[in-house]
Amino acid sequence: MSTYLDISQISIEFPTKTGPFKALDKVDLKIARGEFISLIGHSGCGKSTVLNIVAGLYEATEGAVILESKEVNAPGPDRAVVFQHHSLFPWLTVFENVEIAVKQVFKGKKSKAEMRQWVDYNLALVHMSHASHKLPAEISGGMKQRVGIARALAMEPKVLLMDEPFGALDALTRAHLQDALMEIQSELNNTVILITHDVDEAVLLSDRIVMMTNGPAAKVGEILNIDLPRPRDRLALADNPDYNHYRAAVLTFLHQKQAKKPASPPQLSSAEPLTEVKKAVGA
Ligand SMILES: Nc1ncnc2c1ncn2[C@@H]1O[C@H](COP(=O)(O)OP(=O)(O)OP(=O)(O)O)[C@@H](O)[C@H]1O
């Protein structure tokens, strides 16, 4: 595999009131062009921190992020980010929200007419052409996320960074957007890093699932190759033994190998038989 994005041995320490806090310890990940990677791990392990370092929003204390053989340490349009909550400008229409990013990247490289066509093309990719004249307040949460994705794609980033982009949506809308993302990725061959808490989403979308250990000083724990043919169909996969095997492997990692211990052990009382306590802690 030739490496396109190299997250090379990155560590980060945050200064805190009680001293430095080491969130990541030598996280190392080599990503090929066009790969779809999911990052999964318990809350607070450091997934967003990894993404923020790749985005250039945080600076690693050690290690480096190398994209197409060049070190990146500041934000740039070659790495577009889609967050859990949309970040659209409320006073601009759907079209204008995408256009503003297109102008930022392509001013002087595309004509005005070409830029308008490019905005239309990207809105069509996420099936939002019909609402291009609307304001964000006039469309649903799922539609806003679609526009955020169109805006990110329209920048033609080398890497698309997605931080729980569907986390705040209802299950049906999430499923529609996952399907849309799979379609777009098969067409454009984007390199994607997706943070998710949803095991099914990770297995459905990914080429590889990167499972992080619990923090502090989180690392890459295990990497699972998802060798399922594309295009993938969620209904057909439900009965696919390989799909279920991958799902079980992630669940085992999260709930056994990296199980979160309760903050303080439950107190045994004579009224609580041991079996009930075991049930309470999931043992
Ligand atoms: N700017 C900061 N200053 C101090 N500590 C930070 C900072 N940013 C993150 N942390 C700490 O680093 C650790 C990792 O945080 P991060 O947000 O990356 O986790 P996460 O895996 O994305 O969590 P979640 O799944 O809940 O979003 C946490 O303990 C968090 O408190």
Automatic annotation (TrEMBL):
Membrane topology of this protein: Peripheral membrane protein
One GO cellular component, as annotated: plasma membrane
One Pfam family it belongs to: ABC_tran
Membrane-crossing residue ranges in chain numbering: none
Family to which the UniProt record says this protein belongs: Belongs to the ABC transporter superfamily.
Stretches the record annotates as Disordered: 258-283
Signal peptide (from-to): none
Residues covered by the ABC transporter domain: 5-239
Main localization, broad class: membrane
SUPFAM superfamilies: P-loop containing nucleoside triphosphate hydrolases (SSF52540)
Compartments reported by the entry: Cell membrane
Enzyme class label: hydrolase
SMART domains, sorted: AAA (SM00382)
Xref: InterPro entries: AAA+_ATPase, ABC_transporter-like_ATP-bd, ABC_transporter-like_CS, ABC_transporter_ATP-bind, NO3_transporter_ATP-bd-like, P-loop_NTPase
Protein name: Nitrate/nitrite transport system ATP-binding protein
PANTHER family listed in its UniProt record: NITRATE ABC TRANSPORTER ATP-BINDING PROTEIN (PTHR42788:SF7), TAURINE IMPORT ATP-BINDING PROTEIN-RELATED (PTHR42788)
Organism field: Zhongshania antarctica
Record-listed E.C. numbers: 3.6.3.-
PROSITE patterns found in the cross-reference section: ABC_TRANSPORTER_1, ABC_TRANSPORTER_2
GO molecular function: ATP binding; ATP hydrolysis activity; nitrate transmembrane transporter activity
UniProt keyword terms in alphabetical order: ATP-binding, Cell membrane, Hydrolase, Membrane, Nucleotide-binding, Transport
UniProt cross-references to NCBIfam families, sorted A to Z: ntrCD
